[in-house]
Amino acid sequence: MLKIINLILSIGLLLASSLVFADGHKLKVGMITTLSGGGSGLGIDVRDGFMLAVKDSKDIEVVIEDDQRKPDIAVQLADKMIQSEKVDVLTGIIWSNLAMAVVPAAVSQGKFYLSPNAGPSALAGKGCHENYFNVAWQNDNLHEAAGGHANSAGFKNTFILAPNYPAGKDALTGFKRYFKGSLAGEIYTKLGQTDYAVEIAQIRASKADSVFFFLPGGMGIGFMKQYAQSGIEIPVVGPAFSFDQGILKAVGEAALGVKNTSQWSKDLDNKANKKFVSDFQNEYGRLPSLYASQGYDTGKLLMSAMEKASVKDMGSFREALRSADFDSTRGQFSFSSNHHPIQDIYVREVIKEGDILTNKIVSVGLKDHSNAYVSQCSM
Amino acid sequence: MTAELLIEQLLNGLQFGFMLFLMSAGLTLIFGVMGLINLAHGSFYMIGAFSAAATFAFFNSFWLSLFASFSSAAVVGVIVEKTIIRKLYNRDHLDQVLVTFALILFFSELIRWIFGAFPLYLDVPKILNGSIEIFDGIYYSKYRLFIIFVGLIIATFLFFLIGKTNLGIQIRAGQYDREMISALGVNISKLYTLLFGIGAALAGLAGALIGTIQSVEVGMGEPILILAFVIIVIGGIGSIKGALIASLLVGLVDTLGRFLIPWVLQTITNPSDAMSIGSAIGSMLIYILMAIILILRPTGLYGKILS
Predict the structure, then answer these.
(1) Fewer CB atoms inside 10 A, N or C side of chain A?
(2) Which one, of A343, A329, A358, lies nearest residue A270 by Cα?
(3) A133-179 confidence digits (pLDDT tens)
(4) Nearest 5°: phi and psi at A354?
(5) What angle do CA A201, A206, A207 make, to 5 degrees?
(6) Hey, which residues does A189 pair with through a beta bridge?
(7) Which of B259, B146, B77 is nearest to A199 (CA)?
(8) Cβ atoms of residues A169 and A191 within 8 Å
């Protein structure tokens, strides 16, 4: 008798659980991001922004893992998430070298990948894929705007430097694509390098009239402090990565007045952004950075697609993602044919609000900017 | 390329070398005398930098934060030695590596738990701010000169300590025959604790000095730890003199390599390629140096000859 009851019960349970799975609007997200070691501030901001966006959704389950900024670990985590966690969507990677290791394999296994940060040119051009969407920018974008800004600021002879990894190469390519002056020097530094005495000495000797640098995270903190120490007076320009909210405090006064380019800023005047900035502050007790805004937009995009289609129906889910029907913190937002954003890129200036260093928008650098790799993508 | 640039780069190399010396001096003593592979040495570097940043945020004084850096690292070092490291002296190197690696993870998490994952702020004092004209037309950062100066003082202090004091005799004796000096009535466990504390303090001081011009963040100690191990291998394990010479050698080779190799390559290929090939070779250079030295002198420059 007991056996029969047991049997009935287990059949019941089985049915119940299959009912849950039948509900197609449930979705499982695997987030692989940098949460420890150097550069963890970036991953934490992306995670917090994303979690804030999906906070009220009961249908999204998020699995979060730390890649420690190591490509091999990111690959292992991706395998685990795809094979044993059975996630539907992957997201979270900060660094382009990690994205290059994970994304192609993940999308070819029929998973969606929404990039909240890394946008290497290889994945925008020949390596583009229908299941890969970048919600932040193509790597070159902010640097292209910086090149444009350098022209309008009247710089003629610029010294440029970036770390030696995919995003660093994209950065200098992007800058050179728009900058019309000549180059006083071009240096690739080691990824993760924090001492720039050697490079700063070369800048001093080069007789440049300005410096462009892309050194995200802790690298930029070291560079800015040492640059301020060196007594070199020529102006610097850079993308927002070295002047974002998470690290401005650590850079200190050395950053004051520096022009930097960004697709997002705290003071962007639209409803979604105002709500995001105040919600983020309430939730985490700090100001959001551009990474947080990218994580948040990624979450909102995902939810907008879930309202339209089930992730099991990959074709319609992809269409729903492609329509980008959500209120971005950046205002205008749409996808180009290679699934990268078309958006405005602003020039910001580092200012002091009370005691806090932050950014304010001074002008629009590039309007409705897409990317240079659209034609190389056969999608 | 001008002479000014070359001189500035030489100074950069020296400064980097002295910085590495602060890290490797403690490491080589601990390895040489106590026979302990201490991977957690980078954690003391980080602890020094974070306690300096915390003190700076509170008192806004650079000098006080410098003091906080080595004293707190020393205290943590002594506690760690007395509670954990002490049990490892008779174990083999694998156990030591595992435990001290666990300590790295522990301290990184602890620091993140206390201070958060975002980099902290630490700034140069007014008196060392900016640069100074040392020769005609050659400007150099005052703070970097200060680091060279501190490195020189510490090196002198260590040579005096090892060469001229009673403690130094015990340390040197301990390197050659641990059992014999304890049989002679030297309290070996006290000596080990002291030595470990000194090593940790030097690492902490280095962390604060470097954190001031770089970034104070979790995991900052590991990249420099690798270089410190390269140095003690080149210099010969246990030798302070070897550590000093190897530090300066590595500092100069790394700095000048990063700068000269791309410059030389530019004469044969276009600047962009020269830069990427050059920076790749530049970062290999110290390992090539290590390999060459180990081929010529398998125990390092000043290592004891293995019997």
Answers:
(1) N
(2) A329
(3) 999 999 999 999 999 999 999 999 999 999 988 899 999 999 999 99
(4) 65, -115
(5) 115
(6) A163
(7) B259
(8) no
Residue B281: pLDDT band with limits 50, 70, 90: confident
Q: Residue A21 pLDDT more than 50?
A: no
Reduce the DSSP state of residue B129 to 3 states and report it. coil
From B2, B119, B262, residue closest to A247, measured CB to CB: B119
Q: Is residue A162 classed as helix, strand or coil in its secondary structure?
A: strand
Whether the predicted pLDDT of B115 surpasses 70: yes
Domain assignment present for B105: yes
Q: Does A356 touch chain B (CB under 8 A)?
A: no
Binary contact (A40, B117; C-beta < 8 A): yes
Which among A36, A195, A204 has CB closest to B214? A195
Residue B201 is assigned to a structural domain of this protein: yes
Looking at residue A119, its amino acid is G
| Beta strands per DSSP E along chain A | 27-33, 60-66, 89-91, 112-115, 132-134, 157-163, 182-189, 210-213, 236-239, 259-262, 334-335, 341-353, 356-369
Distance from CA of B12 to the nearest CA of A (A): 6
Which residue, chain included where needed, has tokens 């060196």?
A: A230
Instruction: Name the token pair of A235.
Output: 């102006």
Q: In chain B, whose CA is at the least distance from the CA of A245?
A: B118
B235: confidence class by pLDDT, cuts 50, 70, 90: very high
Chain position carrying tokens 């020949």: A126
User: Which residues touch B302 (CB under 8 Å, ≥6 apart)?
Assistant: B235, B236, B239, B241, B242, B245
Contact at CB, A218 and B120, closer than 8 angstroms: no
Whether residue A37 has pLDDT greater than 80? no
Nearest by CB: B118 against A36, A246, A252:
A246
- Whether residue B252 is contained in a domain is answered as no
Contact A26, B108 (CB under 8 A): no
**Interface with chain B: mutation pick from A191, A229, A256, highest number of B CBs within 10 Å:** A229
Cα–Cα distance, A290 to A221 (Å, whole number): 16
CA nearest neighbour of A319 among A327, A328, A311: A311
Q: Output the six-digit token pair for A126.
A: 């020949």
Our count of domains for chain B comes to 1
Q: Does B50 map to a domain?
A: yes
Domains along the sequence of chain A with CATH: 26-137+268-335 (3.40.50.2300), 141-262+345-375 (3.40.50.2300)
Looking at every residue in chain B, the average pLDDT score rounds to: 89
- Residue A210's CB is within 10 A of a number of other CB atoms, namely 21
Lowest mean pLDDT among A157-166, A239-248, B131-140: B131-140
Using the structure block, give the residue that is written with the tokens 């022009």.
A259
Predicted-assembly ipTM surpassing the 0.85 threshold: no
Minimal CA separation from A195 to chain B, in Å: 7
**For the stretch B283-297, what's the b/e string if a residue is b when 16 or more beta carbons lie within 10 angstroms of its beta carbon?**
bebbeebbeebeeee
Of the candidates A342, A233, A351, A250, the residue with the CA atom closest to the CA atom of residue B53 = A250
- Domain residues for B55? 3-218
Nearest by CB to residue B271, choosing from A41, A186, A201, is A186
Contact yes or no for A252/B57 (Cβ under 8 A): no
